[in-house]
């Protein structure tokens, strides 16, 4: 009788496993969580460089960001790092002074992977704004104004990494394009692909891990 009861229970348990959706069984196993130590508001200092497929180039030797890191354990990778404010100074293109104004802040880094050997988190920088990551560039001496954003109807996004040991926040991508360009703008053309490199150091530097 005890053996029969055990068999009935085993059959019942097996039937329940078959009836349950596969995702319900594996959801917890597949869930990725993050830990951020000493998160919160930080400052980041650095600069950037950009080049278009038409040969136009621009750089900013000085840039300051206000960056907010999530804090705690068991975190999702969504908005793990958030840039809430940014200024770009000492910017030039072809030897002429320009101004670059970021749009769509805050920009949010959604973490996608972690390398425990280097302590580097990789993710995608995006924005809740309809245009995603975007910026307006002005060259007053030539009456030039152009806009940068995502290609076509896509939102602007940039690949980003953060390294614990150095506090380095690095952006590098060729996903952005020139979405509008004024008549006074030299070299660049509408639809030009833009390659961006930006390097910042976060102070104080939080620690991100993916247990």
Structural write-up:
- With 211 residues, this protein is mostly beta strands.
- It is 13% helix and 55% strand.
- It contains 2 helices and 15 strands.
- The protein has helices at residues 2-19, 22-30; strands spanning 34-37, 40-52, 57-69, 72-75, 81-93, 96-97, 99-103, 107-115, 120-127, 134-139, 144-149, 158-163, 168-181, 193-203, 207-209.
- The strands form 2 sheets. An 8-stranded antiparallel β-barrel has the order 2-3-5-8-9-12-13-14. Strands 4-1-15 form a 3-stranded antiparallel β-sheet, with no helix packed on it.
- The two termini are 47 Å apart.
Give me some keywords for this one:
2 helices, 3-stranded antiparallel β-sheet, mainly beta, elongated, disordered N terminus, 13% helix, 15 strands, 211 residues, signal, 8-stranded antiparallel β-barrel
Give the topology, please:
Layout: H1 2-19, H2 22-30, E1 34-37, E2 40-52, E3 57-69, E4 72-75, E5 81-93, E6 96-97, E7 99-103, E8 107-115, E9 120-127, E10 134-139, E11 144-149, E12 158-163, E13 168-181, E14 193-203, E15 207-209
Antiparallel strand pairs: 1-4, 1-15, 2-3, 2-14, 3-5, 5-6, 5-8, 7-10, 8-9, 9-12, 10-11, 11-13, 12-13, 13-14
Summarize the model shown.
The protein is mainly beta and 211 residues long.
The strand line-up of the biggest sheet is 2-3-5-8-9-12-13-14
Biggest beta sheet summary: 8 strands, antiparallel, barrel
The counted number of beta strands is: 15
Q: Which structural class is indicated by helix and strand composition?
A: mainly beta
Helix share, percent: 10-25%
Tell me what portion of residues adopts beta-strand conformation.
Answer: over 45%
Report the total helices.
2
Shape, please? Answer: elongated
Report the average pLDDT across residues: 87
Number of domains: 1
What is the N-to-C succession of helices and strands?
Answer: HHEEEEEEEEEEEEEEE
Cα separation of the termini: 47 Å
Unreliable segments (pLDDT under 50, ≥5 consecutive)?
A: 1-30
State Rg.
23 Å
């Amino acid at each position: 009788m005890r053996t029969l009861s055990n068999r009935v229970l085993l059959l019942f348990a097996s039937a329940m496993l078959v009836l349950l959706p596969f995702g319900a069984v594996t959801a917890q196993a597949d869930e990725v969580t993050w830990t951020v130590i000493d998160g919160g508001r930080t400052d980041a200092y650095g600069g950037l460089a950009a080049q278009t497929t038409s040969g136009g180039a621009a750089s900013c030797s000085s840039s300051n960001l206000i960056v907010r890191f999530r804090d705690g354990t068991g975190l999702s990778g969504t908005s793990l790092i958030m840039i809430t404010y940014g200024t770009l100074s000492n910017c030039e293109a072809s030897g002429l002074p320009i101004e670059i104004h970021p749009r769509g802040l805050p920009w949010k880094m959604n973490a996608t992977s972690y390398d425990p050997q280097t302590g580097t988190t990789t993710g995608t920088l995006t924005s809740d704004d309809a245009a995603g990551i975007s910026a307006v560039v002005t060259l007053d001496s030539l009456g030039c104004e152009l806009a940068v954003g995502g290609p076509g109807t896509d939102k602007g996004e940039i690949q980003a990494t953060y390294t614990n040991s150095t506090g380095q926040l690095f952006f590098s991508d060729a996903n952005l394009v020139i979405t509008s360009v004024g008549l006074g703008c030299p070299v660049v053309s509408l639809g030009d692909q833009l390659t961006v490199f930006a390097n910042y150091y976060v102070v104080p530097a939080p620690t991100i891990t993916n247990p």
